[in-house]
């Protein structure tokens, strides 16, 4: 660094030294020490400062042998009297113009003896210099420097022309009422020039000078004088011509900064100062060295240490990293079939604030518009007349209209799509032709008449030869199926209706069960219906329970005889002679009787409101004359029950739920939610995998027990309540009966392997029953082998459909 500074020229200025007394005061005070001394300063820093001072001493000693190249003028009294350097030695004589500068240098011969000259000592020779000041004494006797006045000589064109009128940007119209038009630089008024008749007479008396334009200078109010060149330029500008002969309106651009070899063409530049002009600061060097030392010792830490919170935050950011999926998105061209956004129609006369009179509604039209619903109105507003635009009030539906406009833009189609010509019928599922699904019942083959009142129940025997029916007249009738001839009849009660008739399954006995009131009658039809061998077998089945009940009486936990909930008894002799062999008395009226497939068990449902829920459902054993109530407390009002054909499952239907119980394990297996308001009947498929549920709210529900608790299909084909539904025992058919007087037959194909869903196809609507008292067809039953069904109606007839 010393060698580099040695070659530089330095300005040497003599600085006055303070008095010793003042210096002692300063040192004794100690304020300067506190100002320059900082905490943490060590001996190394002091040694570095001493080294720097030695370097500066070396530089000063080398500069003694060089010429003094400075144009500075001493600024104190002592500088004028003292030599520039305190040391004497040989130096080359320096010309005066180098000492004082090129502009102030004068020849020595022209100096007069009276001019005070500062003496410089340069070795043996002491040249005199002409200075721009003189020395005088002030009132205290001290020397005083008096500088000569500077004579400026400006030859540059950058200076602005002198303005005579000093009013600035104030318009001259402000001085129309005054005889003057402004003020000059000395504050004197500038008189208004002559105008009007005086000016015309003056122009007539004198010649028009060259360059006169007839224009007035706005700043002075005097005629504007222009040169011939300026007049020529104005003429060309008014004619849209080039202002000069050699003028090029489209010159080539001069690349001052980017052209080759043109980097230094411009005299001014905004480039930063080069490093070669940088002179480092010793004070900043000391401060930086202290900071470096503090960093090494650890007192200053350039970076904050990572805390546990910072580490956790970084781990969370790495674990839940967020990515901008639209960061690399580029604009895409519009679709070929793009549709621009819909535009609003232009406003009409009715939207004007001052429409024509024919657009204004009268009183009658206004009342009609106000009475209409907002959706039915042709326009959302009525035209109104205002005398001025500022009197137009705010529009109350402004925000709603803008919102609807945004919805229009959002929901409007953006792509023009070709219209698809699709036949609506092709969207429907392809169902097989009903003619391909034959056989199924399609016409009425026989009508059975004889009941007085409604026929509530109908049943076909396991052989398929006879049909039994029960009605409101309290009688049970047996009909020949094909001919419709009545073979046998018995009256069970005169004031009670026969609600249910059902044949016992199996071919070993011919037993008909009928529910009339609170009693269940087990009947052996007489006459042509049975032979002696079948009659004896039927009697043995019914009488077997009496011996078992006598030998095994039911007892309580205390060992006392248990009161039976149902009474099994033999009827009187008169009834036995008519075919009634056994009676079962319940606590309330039975509405449903369902047999198990073996024929030894059956279940009854007594859904009366007075019946306790625990005794509403009962399971009876015919061979033991036993009655059981499997539910201590039943949720809901019981409607119907059914046995599973292959598993020990028991289906219980309440008003809105169907529960499946495992009788062997005594637990709830599954609960179905048909979604019906009131369940009327249910029927289980022979395979046991599907369940049909009818309801009084005109819906027929198909449940696939392997899929879930909700219906697989919902069929709505009836206009009134559905009373009963039955699966065919052997064929893929099922039928339902409704209060609208119709019986609808469906094709229901069920695959046992579970690889295919059930197929439901409507086949035929059977009409023939009449509606009486809002009641239509009350019951339906299938033939065990053929595609025939029997229906019982409220009109007192029974119909065979084949």
UniProtKB/TrEMBL annotation:
Q: Which GO terms describe its biological process?
A: maturation of 5.8S rRNA from tricistronic rRNA transcript (SSU-rRNA, 5.8S rRNA, LSU-rRNA); maturation of LSU-rRNA from tricistronic rRNA transcript (SSU-rRNA, 5.8S rRNA, LSU-rRNA)
Q: Where does this one sit in the cell?
A: Nucleus, Nucleolus; Nucleus, Nucleoplasm
Pfam families found in the cross-reference section: BOP1NT (PF08145), WD40 (PF00400)
SUPFAM superfamilies named among the record's database cross-references:
WD40 repeat-like
Q: Where is the composition biased (Acidic residues)?
A: 20-78
Keyword match Nucleus: yes
Q: Where are the WD repeats?
A: 448-489, 715-746, 777-802
Q: What is its main location?
A: nucleus
Residue stretches of biased makeup (Basic and acidic residues): 300-316, 360-369
Q: What is this protein's function per UniProt? A: Component of the NOP7 complex, which is required for maturation of the 25S and 5.8S ribosomal RNAs and formation of the 60S ribosome.
* Positions of the BOP1 N-terminal domain: 175-441
Its protein name is: Ribosome biogenesis protein ERB1
Mention any one GO cellular component term assigned to this protein in its UniProt record.
PeBoW complex
Identify the SMART domains for this entry: BOP1NT, WD40
Pro residues composition bias: which ranges? 342-359
């Amino acid at each position: 660094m010393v060698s580099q500074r040695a070659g530089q020229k330095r300005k040497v200025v003599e600085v006055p030294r303070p008095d010793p007394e003042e210096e002692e005061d300063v040192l004794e005070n100690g304020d300067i020490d506190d100002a320059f001394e900082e905490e943490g300063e060590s001996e190394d820093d002091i040694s570095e400062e001493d080294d720097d001072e030695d370097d500066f001493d070396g530089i000063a000693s080398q500069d003694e042998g060089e010429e003094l190249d400075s144009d500075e003028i001493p600024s104190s009294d002592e500088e004028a009297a003292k030599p520039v350097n305190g040391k004497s030695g040989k130096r080359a004589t320096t010309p005066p113009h180098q000492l004082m500068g090129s502009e102030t240098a004068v020849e020595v011969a022209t100096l007069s003896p009276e001019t005070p000259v500062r003496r410089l000592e340069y070795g043996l020779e002491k040249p005199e210099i002409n200075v721009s000041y003189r020395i005088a004494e002030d009132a205290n006797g001290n020397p005083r420097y008096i500088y000569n006045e500077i004579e400026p000589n400006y030859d540059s064109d950058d200076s602005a022309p002198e303005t005579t009128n000093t009013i600035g940007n104030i318009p001259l119209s402000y001085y129309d009422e005054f005889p003057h038009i402004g003020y000059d630089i000395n504050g004197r008024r500038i008189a208004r020039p002559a105008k009007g008749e005086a000016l015309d007479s003056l122009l007539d008396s004198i010649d028009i000078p060259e360059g006169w334009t007839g224009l007035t200078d706005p700043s002075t109010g005097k005629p504007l004088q222009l040169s011939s060149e300026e007049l020529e330029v104005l003429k060309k500008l008014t004619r849209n011509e080039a202002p000069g002969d050699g003028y090029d309106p489209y010159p080539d651009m001069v690349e001052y900064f980017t052209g080759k070899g043109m980097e230094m063409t411009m005299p001014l530049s905004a480039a930063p100062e080069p490093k070669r002009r940088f002179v480092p600061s010793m004070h900043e060097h000391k401060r930086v060295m202290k900071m470096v030392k503090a960093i090494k010792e650890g007192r200053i830490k350039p970076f904050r240490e990572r805390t546990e919170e910072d580490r956790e935050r970084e781990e969370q950011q790495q674990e839940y990293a967020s990515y901008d999926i639209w960061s690399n998105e580029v604009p895409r061209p519009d679709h070929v079939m793009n549709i621009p956004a819909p535009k609003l129609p232009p406003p009409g006369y009715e939207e004007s604030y001052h429409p024509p009179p024919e657009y204004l509604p009268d009183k009658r039209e206004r009342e009609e518009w106000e009475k209409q619903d907002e959706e039915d109105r042709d326009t959302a507003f009525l035209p109104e007349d205002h005398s001025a635009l500022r009197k137009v009030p705010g529009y109350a539906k402004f925000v709603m209209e803008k919102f609807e406009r945004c919805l229009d833009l959002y929901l409007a189609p953006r792509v023009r799509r070709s219209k698809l010509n699709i036949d609506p019928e092709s969207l429907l599922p392809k169902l097989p032709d009903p003619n391909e699904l034959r056989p199924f019942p399609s016409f009425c083959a026989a009508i059975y008449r004889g009941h007085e009142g409604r026929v509530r129940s109908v049943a076909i025997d396991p052989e398929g030869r006879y049909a039994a029916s029960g009605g409101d007249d309290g009688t049970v009738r047996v009909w020949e199926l094909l001919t419709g001839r009545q073979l046998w009849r018995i009256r069970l009660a005169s004031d009670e209706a026969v609600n249910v008739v059902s044949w016992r399954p199996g071919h070993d006995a011919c037993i008909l069960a009928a529910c009339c009131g609170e009693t269940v009658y087990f009947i052996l039809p007489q006459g042509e219906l049975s032979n002696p061998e079948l009659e004896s077998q039927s009697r043995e089945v019914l009488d077997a329970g009496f011996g078992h009940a006598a030998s095994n009486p039911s007892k309580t936990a205390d060992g006392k005889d248990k009161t039976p909930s149902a009474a099994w008894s033999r009827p009187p002799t008169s009834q036995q002679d008519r075919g009634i062999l056994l009676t079962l008395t319940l606590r309330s009226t039975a509405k449903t009787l369902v047999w198990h497939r073996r024929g030894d068990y059956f279940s009854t449902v007594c859904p009366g409101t007075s019946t306790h829920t625990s005794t509403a459902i009962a399971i009876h054993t015919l061979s033991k004359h036993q009655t059981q109530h499997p539910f201590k407390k039943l949720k809901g009002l019981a409607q119907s029950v059914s046995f599973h054909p292959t598993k020990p499952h028991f289906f219980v239907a309440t008003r809105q739920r169907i529960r499946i119980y495992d009788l062997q394990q005594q637990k709830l297996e599954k609960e179905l939610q048909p979604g019906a308001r009131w369940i009327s009947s249910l029927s289980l498929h022979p395979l046991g995998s599907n369940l049909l549920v009818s309801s009084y709210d005109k819906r027929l529900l198909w449940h696939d027990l392997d899929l879930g608790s909700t219906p697989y299909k919902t069929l709505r084909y009836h206009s009134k309540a559905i009373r009963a539904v039955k699966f065919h025992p052997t064929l893929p058919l099922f039928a339902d009966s409704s209060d609208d007087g119709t019986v609808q037959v469906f094709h229901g194909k069920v695959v046992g392997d579970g690889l295919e869903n059930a197929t439901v196809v409507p086949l035929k609507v059977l009409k023939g029953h009449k509606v009486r008292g809002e009641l239509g067809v009350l019951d339906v039953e299938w033939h065990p082998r053929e595609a025939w069904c029997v229906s019982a109606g409220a009109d007192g007839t029974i119909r065979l459909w084949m």
